[in-house]
Amino acid sequence: MRRISIGINWQGEFDIDHIIEQAKVADSAGVDSIFVAEAWGRDAFTTLAVLALETSHIKLGTGIVNNYSRTPAALAQHFATLDELSSGRMIIGLGSSGPQVIEHFHGVPFEKPLTRIKEYVEIINMIMREEPLNYRGKIYRLERGFTLRFKPVRPHIPIYLASVTPKSLEQTAAIADGWFPIFVPRSQWKAQLDQFQGYVKKAGRSVEDVTVRNPNGVAVTTDRERHREAVAGNTAFYIARMGDFYYEHFLRMGYADEANAVRKAWADGGSSAGAAALPADLIDELGTAGSVEECVEALEQAEEAGFRLHSVSVAERDSKKREAIFKRLVG
Question: Looking at the structure, do residues 67 and 143 belong to the same domain, yes or no?
């Protein structure tokens, strides 16, 4: 069986009844997990609380929340409460985001992202283990020995980190239960996984200790072009408008010409021009859209490469047909 996951959008129209129905169908079909995103739209935790009560087996996670707008203790409270509501089904998806969002939406200085992630992970883990919170870090100094006023369902909730830079990958390999890579063309899979798994081994861990999610989603749809346009638009936005982290990520993978072309086109002509500047073959390497059979083949290739969790979307609206598609994707 393959571990597949679905996502809940953080922006645009919001139909909680449809979201609940999606979650229940996925739960029944054996989908591994649902990840609720959070950026500058709806918060993730309200929707997760609803889904915790409306589902029975499927794991629930954030994909992702940032580690600047809430303290580590506040996040531990959120996740411990949701873990209780869901009977131990939470996954903590955490990342630093970037200076645009952190400084200009949340109004917090984007400082020491690697140190902050490390301290958040350590503090959250201490709270979940019910250790008195006496912690002396470079950012946080906690000296009164607080513990939660309720017993967590589990002494550890899995923490998956979204990381891009080499230093952040090395830290993720050492401290996290999972890694969320992003924007990795198929031709770069081996190089990226080899690098990351090398960091895992360097940290004295087994590669089986850290789940790596497939960075390339699959979409079961008859409208391939619409999906390609969405991939192109999202990729161009991150390259041109989300600071330098993702831009430099493409540079490290050997796509300097493509990334520079996107930035120039966006600056000259806006979002449509930026998306149009991405080469067609690069867009096709960043995801798969098509029939169930084509998507299963893409998932098999990703499994063979070493990815153990996969993001899928299914355009079919009929719940029975969608459940059948999910079951075929799970295998």
Answer: yes
217 lies in the same domain as 228: no
Q: Considering its fold, how many domains does the chain have in total?
A: 2
Measuring CA to CA, which residue among 47, 44, 35, 33 is closest to residue 69?
A: 44
- Same domain assignment for residues 121 and 233: no
Angle of the 113-128 helix axis to the 166-175 helix axis, nearest 10: 10
Q: How far is CA 98 from CA 66, 203, 215, in A?
A: 9, 26, 19
Same domain for 126 and 213, yes or no, is: yes
DSSP symbol at 209: G
Q: What is the pLDDT of residues 113-124, one digit of tens each?
A: 999 999 999 999
- What is the average per-residue pLDDT within 223-231? 96
pLDDT, tens digit, 9 for 90 and up, residues 43-71 = 999 999 999 999 999 999 999 999 999 99
Query: What mean pLDDT is reported for the chain?
Result: 97
251: containing domain: 222-286
8 A C-beta contact, residue 126 and residue 156: no
